[in-house]
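Quick one:
INPUT:
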């Protein structure tokens, strides 16, 4: 991954996460041979954007005999250097048993939102798990663990630390950072049987999918696969291959070592460059490319053969890590120019995943389909996939079912993010525009894409999941075909009431500069009992608000609905929605629309998201009938805008 993301995507912590504790689990007393491990952890329950109402911890009995959990416990500590396991409120004594190959679902704390409820749990606790990071142990239920990071062994049967910056983990690094819709799950591709003692290697980030005693059993055979043995550091000055630095695992075997290697520069960024060995080692499991991080613009250019001496590290990003080399000021020597590296041709899904191609120059064959373009303008990202558009697993299958888990794994294997590799936000012109405008979901890439494989966040949210990305050598050369053109009008479906919805994207009449649309100054928005302009989430001035409103009004007038449901509008009584109604009427005709009264008291900076918190209705309807407004927004013979 390119270090442009150090300043590329400022992560905004959702308000609901502010109350969530970091996650950790503690263990119970049992022998390692018993085969019970922590198989999945989810700490986003009930938060904004949550997919379940409760946090959960999932245990898996990998063995062929039932295990009685009496005398075992889960204990929790925050995912930081100071988070300890000493609080009784963060401990849960376990009871019951797990069948051979079975799953034991532990329901934890409930948030204020989220849907649906978890599948029936085997046990219920009240520990509030961290939404992004945490650490936990499965072990003995005797005295509480002490300290911030207990050593494996003894009364500790299994330790899971998750969150990219978590200092407590098993092995070489923590499991990925979780989110309100994502959990970390053990060895998804391998059926959940690997336990190498390395959280980075053993856990993946997936859409949360809890399993319980009703889920199909998975009995693991044989001893857990051992982790890779640490490689000895090469002698100073010895030139080694990039593939030796990368190794065949998810992290470098030479982390912390100073090494010297050579390769051809394939792509430069504003904070470093990628280089690749002229001659690989012929091992498909090891990458021949690597990121060299220089902090500022590099002095090298594509096609140069360079020798680099630097320190090997794993840069944490998007819930995983990327191997990089950080040279000293004199650690880069140009040895020639005019060199080329042939790209490796790939077709998604790639057997074994894209980790083995990290930092390498590749050509991704088509057809590739645009899945979402939400971050195209701001971050220069388009999510692409092979085999058509991706379907959310829970749209098709029950959450936690084997089918849902399998589809999540299939989606991950078919997906890649096209990223411009720039640290500039809202760049102009917007990347990937073509003759038909900007790509829409369902449009397809023309031909193939040649670029460097990278890894990093695929959204802007705190704790956002990471994805493999391709940084094209020539972004302007990436073409698209309008295979999903926008229709000139909605398809006729009959009926006499047109219902539409509109996300007005934080339409706040109270601005972040303390002013309001009505001309007041020194105002603010309420959050957690405190009123401050910084709590407001919409426009920062009247000028920006006017631009936002004008765009919304133009779109609403073009849709010309009978009923319009609004999302993300400020909960300040009828003030925000009435402001929008007035502007809409100025466009389409005085008295055309009217706000349906909001029956719910405003809740500070929250935003309305349903058809029950207010509406706007026109006063005359089709065929000359009266257009009335209902407080429940269930307008009859009416045109309404509901918030």
């Amino acid at each position: 991954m390119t270090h442009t993301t150090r300043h590329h995507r400022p992560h905004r912590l959702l308000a609901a996460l502010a109350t969530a504790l970091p996650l950790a689990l503690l263990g119970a007393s049992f022998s390692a041979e018993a085969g019970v491990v922590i198989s999945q952890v989810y700490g986003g329950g009930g938060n904004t954007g949550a997919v379940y109402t409760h946090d959960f911890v999932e245990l898996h009995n990998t063995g062929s005999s039932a295990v009685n959990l009496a005398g075992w416990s889960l204990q929790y500590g925050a995912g930081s250097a100071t988070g300890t396991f000493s609080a009784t409120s963060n401990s849960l004594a376990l009871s019951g048993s797990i069948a051979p190959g079975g799953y034991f679902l532990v329901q934890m704390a409930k948030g204020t939102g989220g849907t649906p409820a978890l599948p029936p749990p085997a046990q219920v606790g009240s520990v509030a798990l961290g939404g992004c990071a945490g650490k936990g142990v499965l072990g003995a239920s005797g005295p509480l663990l002490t300290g911030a990071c207990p050593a494996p062994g003894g009364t500790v049967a299994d330790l899971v630390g998750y969150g990219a910056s978590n200092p407590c983990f098993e092995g070489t690094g923590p499991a990925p950072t979780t989110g309100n819709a994502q959990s970390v799950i053990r060895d998804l591709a391998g059926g959940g049987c690997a336990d190498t003692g390395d959280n980075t290697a053993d856990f993946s980030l997936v859409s949360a999918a809890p399993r319980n005693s009703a889920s199909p059993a998975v009995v693991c055979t044989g001893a857990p696969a051992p982790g890779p043995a640490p490689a000895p550091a090469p002698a100073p000055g010895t030139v080694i291959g990039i593939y030796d630095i990368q190794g065949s695992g998810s992290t470098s075997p030479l982390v912390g070592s100073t090494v010297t290697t050579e390769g051809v520069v394939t792509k430069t960024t504003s904070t470093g460059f990628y280089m690749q060995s002229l001659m690989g080692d012929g091992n498909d499991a090891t990458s021949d490319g690597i990121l060299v991080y220089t902090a500022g613009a590099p002095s090298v250019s594509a096609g140069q053969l360079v020798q680099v001496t630097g320190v090997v590290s794993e840069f944490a990003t998007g819930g995983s890590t990327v191997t990089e080399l950080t040279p000293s000021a004199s650690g880069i020597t140009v040895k020639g120019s005019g060199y080329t590296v042939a790209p490796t041709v790939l077709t998604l899904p790639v057997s074994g995943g894209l980790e083995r191609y990290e930092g390498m120059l590749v050509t991704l064959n088509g057809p590739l389909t645009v899945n979402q373009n939400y971050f195209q303008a701001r971050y220069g990202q388009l999510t692409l996939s092979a085999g058509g558009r991706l379907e959310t697993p829970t749209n098709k299958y029950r959450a936690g079912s084997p089918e849902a888990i399998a589809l999540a794994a299939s989606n991950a294997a078919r997906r890649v993010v096209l990223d411009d590799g720039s640290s500039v936000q809202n760049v102009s012109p917007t990347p990937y525009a073509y003759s038909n405008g900007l790509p829409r979901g369902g449009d397809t890439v023309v031909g193939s894409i040649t670029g460097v494989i990278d890894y990093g966040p695929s959204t802007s949210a705190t704790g956002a999941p990471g994805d493999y990305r391709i940084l094209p050598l020539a972004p302007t050369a990436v073409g698209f075909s309008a295979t999903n053109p926008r229709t000139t009008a909605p398809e006729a479906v009959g009926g006499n009431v047109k219902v539409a919805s509109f996300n007005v994207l934080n339409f706040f009449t109270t601005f972040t500069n303390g002013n309001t649309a009505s001309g007041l100054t020194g105002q603010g928005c309420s959050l957690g009992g405190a009123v401050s302009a910084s709590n407001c989430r919409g426009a920062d001035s009247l000028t920006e608000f006017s631009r936002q409103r004008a765009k919304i009004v133009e779109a609403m007038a073009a849709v010309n609905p009978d009923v319009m449901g609004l999302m993300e509008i400020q909960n300040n009584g009828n003030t925000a929605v009435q402001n929008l109604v007035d502007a809409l009427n100025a466009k389409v005709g005085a008295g055309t629309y009217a706000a349906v009264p909001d029956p719910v008291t405003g809740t500070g900076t929250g935003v309305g998201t349903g058809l029950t918190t207010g509406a706007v209705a026109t006063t005359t309807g089709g065929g000359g009938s009266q257009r009335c407004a209902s407080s429940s927004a269930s307008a009859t013979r009416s045109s309404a805008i509901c918030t």
